[in-house]
């Protein structure tokens, strides 16, 4: 655990840069594998009035966190709201951030596509229509729509339905859309064990979803930026050795807490 000391938090937005050496910073950053953007909350204490006035709704905000010798990106999104309240002797500025570029999650569309169009082409066009950038588009079964395709409803639902029909999962992470097989992800060749931050023992779970049994582990660790939606990690503990894919979780820092908690599937 030689690198897991001296916590590091850096918040960037506009021309502003904040870090936990100069200011007290807290956050709660959820993530998951669906197309609904997640709302994160960042609290920064005792900002000056002139600095607070530079924080603007719609600005991109990113957070890098971890440790001085081992840090990385945990959030990239758009500022949704800013409030400042008195908290004892301190001023607490709360910034709420959507983990996506601004887009209308309920936007509807009426449109028809030509015969024999491929599913990935429709997904690309639909994503563009609501202003979402595609980071990964990999359909296990890129079906040809022989009769064409028509949409008359919510764009996000249509993207999700087409992805599911082609054997993929669609979700938003760090401001971009990912469409790929549920078992695929970002392999950082990271082994989570006691020496790299694992806390306690992974907790096994099973659940039924759409007639399928999903198996996996609930895991808690010291804050680990490598664990995010679709991260592939190896678990190593006294009783568990497994390779898993993260499906949801949260990074949080408050007081002495500086943790990542995830649910990961086998």
TrEMBL record:
A Pfam short name: E217_GP41
InterPro entries: E217_GP41
Stated name of the protein: Phage protein
Organism: Ureibacillus suwonensis
Lineage: Bacteria, Bacillati, Bacillota, Bacilli, Bacillales
């Amino acid at each position: 655990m030689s690198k897991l000391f001296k916590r590091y938090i850096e918040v960037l937005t506009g021309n502003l840069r904040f870090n936990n050496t100069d200011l007290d910073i807290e956050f709660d950053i959820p993530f998951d594998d669906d197309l609904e953007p997640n709302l994160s909350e960042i609290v920064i204490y005792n900002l000056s009035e002139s600095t607070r006035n530079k924080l603007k709704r719609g600005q991109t905000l990113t957070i890098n966190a971890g440790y001085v010798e081992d840090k990385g990106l945990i959030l990239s999104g758009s500022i949704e709201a800013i409030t400042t309240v008195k908290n004892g002797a301190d001023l607490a500025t709360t910034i709420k951030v959507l983990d996506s570029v601004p887009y209308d999650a309920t936007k509807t569309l009426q449109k028809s596509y030509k015969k024999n169009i491929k599913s990935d082409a429709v997904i690309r066009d639909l994503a563009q229509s609501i202003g979402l950038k595609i980071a990964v588009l990999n359909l296990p079964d890129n079906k040809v729509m022989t009769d064409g395709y028509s949409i008359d409803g919510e764009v996000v639902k249509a993207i999700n339905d087409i992805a599911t029909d082609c054997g993929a999962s669609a979700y938003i992470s760090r401001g971009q859309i990912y469409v790929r097989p549920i078992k695929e992800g970002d392999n950082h060749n990271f082994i989570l064990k006691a020496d790299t931050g694992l806390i306690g023992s992974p907790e096994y779970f099973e659940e039924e979803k759409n007639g399928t049994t999903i198996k996996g582990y609930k895991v808690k660790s010291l804050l680990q930026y490598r664990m995010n939606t679709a991260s592939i990690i190896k678990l190593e503990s006294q009783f568990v050795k497994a390779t898993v894919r993260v499906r949801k979780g949260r990074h949080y820092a408050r007081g002495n807490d500086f943790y990542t908690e995830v649910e990961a599937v086998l």
